[in-house]
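Data deposition worksheet. Section B asks for the primary sequence of the deposited chain exactly as it was used as input, without tags or linkers unless they were present during the calculation. Section C holds the resulting structure in C-alpha cell form. Section D is free text for depositor observations; keep each observation to a single sentence. Incomplete worksheets are returned to the depositor.
Section A, Depositor: J.P.
Section B:
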Amino acid sequence: MTDITCPACGAEFDLTVAFACEEERRAFARLASVSIPLGTRVLKYIALFTPPKQRLTSAKKLKLLMQLLPDLERKVITHKGRDWTAPLDAWAQAIDQMLAARDAQRLELPMKGHGYLYAVLAGMADKHEAAQEAKREEDARLRPRRDTVQVRGQALEIGAALDVVYGGKDPALAAIEQRERNAAPMPAHLRARIDQLKKGTP
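Section C:
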C-alpha cells in the first residue's frame, strides 16, 4: 500500500488512513449541520456501543454514525414496517432517556443496534399522533352544529324552517337565503358596485 508523507512533520502513513479520516470528517460535518447540541448527544449515544474494557474504534463510530445520519437529516425513522416522524427534539429526548437509563444501570450494555432507540422514538411519535387525533375529535365535538329539517323538499336549518312554517316564506327562497348566509361574505367594493348597478348609476 502506498504511503504518503506529512509535509509538516515528515511522518509517513498509509493512504487509506487519509481517506478514512476524510470520510470521518465529512460525517461529523453532516452531524454538525443537523444540530451541534444534538450532535453531542448522538456521540454520547454512540459511546453506549463501547465494549467493556475496550475502546470503540474510529471505524465503528463512523459506521454507527452513518447509520443514523440519513434519518437525522430527514427527521423520519422506519420502525416495524412504517415511517414515524422524528423531529430533532424527539431525538434529544429519546437519547436523554437512554443515558438516564444507563446511569440508573437499567440499560444492558454495550448496545448491539439502534432498535432500542428507534422503539423509543416510535413510541413518542405514536403518543403524539394519539394526542393530535384526540384533539381533532374534541374540536369536532365542541364545534357548533347546524341541524337541518326537510320542509317541502328543501333541507333548511331550524331558524329558516320556522320562517317558512310560521312566516309563510317560500321554502325555495328560504333555501337560497340560507346558502347566501352560509357563503363567504361578499367584499364591500363588489356589494357597492352591485348597488350602483341596481340604481342605474354608471
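Section D:
The CA atoms of residues 145 and 156 lie 13 Å apart.
The mean pLDDT is 81.
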